[in-house]
Amino acid sequence: EAVTSSSTTNPFANGDSTSSTSSSTSSSSSSSSSTDAPFNGASTSSTSSSTSSSTSSSTSPSTSSSTENPFDQSTTFPQETSTSTFPIFTRTLPKDCSRIYVDVAFILDVSGSVGADNFNLVRNAIASTIERMAIGPELIRVAFMRYHIDFFYDFNFIDYFDSQFMANAIRNLQYDDSRRYGTLTGQALTGFVNTFLTDGTGWRDADTLVYVVTDGASQDPVGAGAQLLKDTGAQVVALGVTNEVNLLELNTIASTPSDVILVQSFRDVQRAIVSDIASRDLCIETTTTTTTT
Length: 293
Hints:
- This protein is of the alpha/beta class and 293 residues long.
- It has helices spanning 116-131, 163-171, 185-196, 223-230, 247-253, 269-279, and strands at 4-8, 19-23, 28-35, 45-52, 62-66, 74-78, 81-85, 87-92, 103-109, 141-147, 151-155, 208-214, 235-241, 260-263, 286-291.
- Helix 1 (116-131) links the parallel strand 9 and strand 10 (141-147).
- Helix 1 (116-131) runs antiparallel to helix 2 and helix 3 (185-196) packs parallel to helix 4.
- The longest helix has 16 residues, at 116-131.
- The chain is globular and about 40 Å long.
C-alpha cells in the first residue's frame, strides 16, 4: 500500500517539537499533536484521538492522555521527506536500557598520522552513532572534542539537543592537512576536563562516559591527564585503531582493562562504538527497514 506523508520528524531528539500527518486509502485515520519537554525538565504530554469506521456505520471515538517515556517502546516513523511515497523505518530502543540520564563525550585524535580519509571515516561513524542515540536535555547529552598538538572545543553537552543537528555539525568538520601535526593526548585529556567538565557546559556531574579514539602513541605523558579525567568519576573508554597504538598507554587512559577496545581499521570504529554503548545499557536504537509498495 502506498503511504503519502508530509512531515518533519525526529522522535529521538527532544530539542524541537515534532508533528506528522499521514493518510492512506484504508478507512481509518489518526492525528496527533505533541509538545516536547523544554530544557527545564517539564514533563512531556500528549493527546491522541482516533476514530474508526466499520461497514455497519457505527462510530466509536476514543481519547487518551498520558505521560510516559517515549523511548520505552517501538516507534515507526517515515523518512524525513516532502509529500512522496517512501520506505518505512522501524526503530526500536531496548525496553530494558537503564542508562538514559548520562553524559557521553567523544575525544578524537586528528593528528597527522590519521589522514583526511580516515578522519572522514571516524567522523561519519560517530555522527551515525549519535543519530541512533536517545538525545535530549533530560536524556543523553553529548559533547565532542578533537585534538592533535592543540585541542578543539567543537561542542559541549548543551549546544545540541537535536541528534540530527549534532550529527550534521560533526559531518561538517574538516581535517587540517596543512601540516603533519603531532599527538599530545595527555594535554588533550587535561584540557577536556578543565574545559568541558565544568559549570556552564551542561555537564551534569553524574553518569559520564568518555570515548578517547586514537591511532597511535602520544608524544607526551598521558598519566596525569588520564587520572584527572578518571577522578571526575567518568568511565573512560580508550579505543585504539590500527596496530600502531601503544597498548600500555591505552590501559593508562582507560578506567579498567575491559575499557580498552582495539580495532584494526578505521572502518571498524562505528561497529565497535555501537557495540560498546549497547553493552553498557545506554539507549541506542536498532534499525530495520521495510519498503511499502
